[in-house]
Amino acid sequence: MTCPLFVDDTRKCTSEVKSVPVATYDFCMSEMYKDCPFFRVLNKIGHTCENIKDCSLYAHFKMGGFEKFVEITKQYCLSENNVNCKIYVLKKSGETVPSDLHPDGGWL
Asked: Which pLDDT belongs to residue 85?
C-alpha cells in the first residue's frame, strides 16, 4: 500500500513539505506512510504541536535521515510531549529560537 497523498494528491503534500528528500519515498511507497509526520499533520491525525508549521526542525529535517526525523516528531511534535520540546519552550516564552536547535536541547 502507498500513501494516498503520494498517489492521489502529491502536489498537496509537496506544496506543504516544500522539499522532499529521496529517503521519504520509502515511506510514501509502503505501509510506513502512516508514520510520516507530513501525512499525519495534513490529515489531522493525533495531537500536533501548535508550532509545527513554522518549526525550525521542519525547515532542517532533510539534513538528517528521514527515519530519525520521524522518530523525533513522534517523540515531540506529534505527541503531548511537545510541551517538553526546547523549541516549543523558547517560542512560548517569546525568546529567539536558534535555527539549529533540536527538541531535546541538542543541535541539529
From this structure: 95
Confidence of residue 79 (pLDDT cuts 50, 70, 90): very high
- Report d(CA 23, CA 102) in Å as an integer: 20
Domain-located, residue 70:
yes
Q: How many domains in the chain?
A: 1
Chain centre distance of CA 78: 8
Residues 6 or more apart in contact with residue 8 via CB below 8 angstroms: none
pTM of the model: 0.76
- Cell 536558534 belongs to 98
Task: Report yes or no on 52 lying in a domain.
Answer: yes
